[in-house]
Amino acid sequence: MNAEKFAIARADRPAPPSSLNEPIHDEQGEVVGAINCFHETTALHHAPDEPDDFFDTASVGLHIISGNGTILRVNRAELEMLGYTAEEYVGRNIAEFHLDAGTIEGMLSRLGRGERLVECPARLRAKDGSIRQVRITSTARMRDGKVINTRCQTQDVTEQLRAEELLRQQDRQLAATYEQASIGIAEVDIEGKLLRVNAHLAAMMGHSPEEILGRSIFDPALAEDVENDEAQFRRQVAGEIERYAIEKRFRRPDGSKIWVSIASSTVRDAGGRFLYAVRVQHDVTDRKRAEELLARRAEEQAALYEFTEGLQHSSGLDDVYNLAMDAIFRALRCQRASVLLFDGSGVMKFVASRGLSESYRRAVEGHSPWASDQTDPRPICIEDIELADLPEGLQGVIRAEGIRALSFIPISAEGRFLGKFMTYYDQPHTFAEGEIGLALTIARQLGFAAERARTEAARQHAERAARQLVAIVESSHDAIISKDLDGVITTWNTGAEHLFGYRAEEVIGQPVTILFPPDRLHEESDILARIRGGELVDHFETVRRRKDGTLVDISLTISPVRDSRGRIVGASKIARDITERKEAEAKLRDRERQLKDLLAAIPAAIYTTDAQGKITYFNEAAVELAGRTPTLGTDEWCVTWKLYWPDGRPLPHDECPMAVALKEGRPIRNAEAIAERPDGTRVPFIPYPTPLRDANGKIVGAVNMLVDVSERKQAETQQHVLFNELNHRVKNNMQMLQSLLRMAAMRTGSAEAQQVLNEATNRIAAMASAQQVLYGTADALRFKAQPFLDTVCHTAAQAFPPEVKVTCEAADIELSNDAAMPLALILNELLTNAVKHGVSGSGEGIVRVGLTREHESYVLFVEDDGPGFALEQVRQRSSGLQLVQGLARQLRGKFDVTRNPRSRCSVQFS
CA 106, CA 138: separation in Å to the nearest integer? Predict the structure, then answer.
């Protein structure tokens, strides 16, 4: 400002009354001069007489400036808004606080012409460096055509603008989220017609969005089980309910069906009138399949239980065979079955069959894949007769019977091979491991029952049946327990020993509640009440406690036990460990959630095609990579405009990796191509095309992910540069800090302070050496143990006497970067302690350092030949050991000290 004058005055000369005088000091604090500032205040005297109370207490910012922009007066609201004091603000030119020079120049020019400014936008710089968005309303006071002063009102709109921008961002994000959501979302009008669907819902139903818009959600061509859905929807429209949830099946154009979970919520206007419903749809086909699998396992358990239960009351071989047939059909789900046993001459004969023709039985009777003296026959399963290596005659007989798959299950009892039972299937069949195990269990029980009936006389029948049942119970993998009506255990099988950890002699005579967690004790009284009423407790899932205190998920089947008069005298309980099933259910849920999260987070270009290569779906990243919006149902093979090989040769679309994947029915990997956008720019990318198949193995389409390699390489290059720059800056800062600590240690006169500063210097050096290792690795997240130990030990050894030798050895392991600094500081403290207390008085000695793996943990140790120490005795007076313990807890580890055979300090961490 031309009205301001600055002068340097002597320190011993007083400043004028209207001046601002500041003394100047030399390095010793002596006054050697002063700076005096003068400014013209004529315009201030021409300022209008504003009521002081109104001006100072106004809730909006107010200030008065002269014609040349000098701030003459300001109120408290404006000072608080910008963070300045009155001394820092008044007397300075207003342009100094404006971020945009052009804005304030224009405003002053307009005021000079006598214009009135109304809410002009501007940006002001606050004292803390932040930017305040404001609206300025100003009127100039004129005299003889010149501006005497200007009164300005400053309104802070920073938060308002920020909120408006946030609202706009949220609107954009909501629209993007709707379209890119990994769940199906639809809007349905009052008649049930689809008003809007996102791409995920359309893909879930196997249609494009255009194909299903306007169609009814109750269209039988789209969905099954629509009656309940429609009834609920009508109630929702009528306002009886605001939301409901339902599960139903959808038909897809390719003939497949999916199970979908639907949550329908009402959207109403301000008057409460129904506008539309928002339906959120999840594909729960996998869960339904899991439920079907669990139901099948429960059915198998029930079949096995009924078979076991029926054997207790069987009155002869016919009963045994019938029970076995029922169990085989129910548990193994075959279409036909038979039981064949060796007769007295060692020939395999049919003793029971269902669904087989007489001609077939005559043709195959006597055939056996095992010899009659076989000691350990194993099951034989033929999944497809057409692919089996069987004698031509036998294969022809089986084919003529309409059998496509079958199994031979050996029946043995008490170490003797008795025969077999067979299952037959009308279609090729895959025999799962669990299915074979279940068949062997049935065969074992059948064998015991058959052997009992064939070898025991009628007089011993009841006794032998009891022993047979005991054998079945003892051989069962399930826990089988009996108890009386008071809940006292009376029998306990091997399966129960394996499941609960108690031996029979430990629990027989004890109340069964020793197996109950405290929060489950109420279940026993309920179970006993149901048993006394003759009720079967079937498939009751609960939790029990083992001998070691751990809990186990089990499924219980409990039935009454009656005496010879039919009176209920106790209960028989079968307990099956269902931990694996529960874990499988949890894993299934985790996989579903992870898949949803993964699809929602993938930033790469992804699109799908049908079996003919027509584009059926693409995401926004695909549009961005291709530089164009593909046409669904028209574009083929790839979303790009033109394709080239990496060497620049044109690549026809029908020869691209996606076309090859569909034509050859295999995923394509390790391919690379170049996409040309319509604007001529080219993008190198790596495709990952993978064919999609239905349950029958037929290719129904493909999915492809295109990874932009150029952007990745640029990012890697930039990351490398930033990584090196960060390493350089951190290294310089640590070196500067070490220098400052050393200088402070040299200048201090306190021995105690000097020791503390030297220890701090050594700790900084250890951290610097760890940082050097981290930034020298190729992997940005992990580091190898051996170079880490070498570097930290070498750095620490520089502070030790030359006679002290430090050896270090580490296993071939890698550790997370998070562990580097705590380990470096721990190692520095333990090395310093070992050299200080563990070597001989002459300063000579060897300190051994190691980092090893022990089971699921790692162990860092420092050993010396000194006398060692008791941790509890020295911990309170050693800040270094306290630091080690704190760092060990940071690693979720444990610090330990031992003396034999060497003095050893170690930290075990996970």
Answer: 13
